[in-house]
Amino acid sequence: MPAILIGVLAAFFFAFTFVLNRSMELSGGSWIWSASLRYLFMVPLLLIIVIAKNNLKPLLYEMRKRPGTWLLWSFVGFGLFYAPICFASAYSPGWLIAGTWQITLISGSLLAPFFSEVIQTKNGPLKVRGTIPFKGLMMSLLILLGIIVMQIDQSKDISLADLLYGVVPVLIASFAYPLGNRKMMDVCEERLDAYQRVLGMTLASLPLWFILSLYGLFTAGMPSKEQTGQAALVALFSGVIATVLFFRATDMARGNMQQLASVEATQSFEVLFALLGELLFLSIPVPSPISWIGMFIVILGMILHSYAAHAKTKTNVQMIDQKAAQ
C-alpha cells in the first residue's frame, strides 16, 4: 500500500506539467519558452542530486565515450517528446493532453521488437528479443477508445485543424519518449542510475533548447516573469519530485509483479489531477459526461494494461524455467 500511495503522489506532481503548460499558454506565454525553460532549470536541480551521490564523474566519462549517441537519442527522447507536448498545449486543455498522453503505453508496446529484454530465470538472467505483448495491447485498445471518446467530444467546439494540432504532436511524443529513453538505457547498460541518465540526457539535449530559446527570443520575445516562474515549478515538480517519487515507488514494489503493476497503473490518475488542477486554478468549464466517460475508460485501460503486461512477463519466466528443467 505505501508504494501505491507514493505512486499516486507521483502522478499528482506529474500532472503539474499539463496544468502549468496550459496556464502559461493562456497567459500569453510561448510554448517555445515553456519547453526550453523546463530543461534549462532541470540542469542545476539534477546536478545537485547527482553530485550529492558522487556520481557526476562516471556520467561525464560515459558521455565522452559516445557523444553522438547521447546527442541523437536525447534529442529524440527529450526534444521530440517535450516540445510537441508544449506545442499541443496551445490547442487543447491540459486534462485532454494528459489523457491523450496515456497512449504512450500502446506506443511503447509497438516498439518492443526493436529492443531486447532481460528475464530473470532459475539459471540466471536471459536476454531475449522483445515481442509485442498482444494481450496487453488488446487491453490498451481501451485506452485508445477512451482517447477517441474524449477527442470526439472536444471536436464539437474546435476546428479540425486545432484538433489535429492538439493530437498529432502528442502522438509523436508518445513514440519519441520511450524510444529515446530505451535507447539510452541500452547504451548505458546499467552503468548509470536513473538520475545520471536523466541528467546526461538533459545536458545532451541542451543544444536543442538553446537553439529553440534563440528562435523564441526573435519570434516571441523574452519570457515573462510569470512564465519563467511556472516553468521552474514544472522542472521542480515534474522533472525532479515526481520522478524521484515514482522511482521510489517502483523500487519498493520490485520483485512483486502485482504490486509493480498497481504502482504503474497509478499514473492514470494524472488525467484526474490535471482536470482538478485546471478546474481549480484555470476555471475551465466542467467536461461533459461523455468526456468523463472517456477519462474513466482511459484509466481502466491503463490498469488492465499494467496487469496484463506483468502477467505476460511472469508467464515467459515460467516457460523458460520449464524448458531449462527439461
UniProtKB/TrEMBL annotation:
Domain of life: Bacteria
Transmembrane helix recorded as keyword: yes
Membrane spanning residue stretches: 31-50, 70-90, 96-115, 136-152, 158-177, 198-218, 230-247, 268-284, 290-309
Pfam family membership, one: EmrE
Keywords noted in UniProt: Membrane, Transmembrane, Transmembrane helix
Protein name, per record: Membrane protein
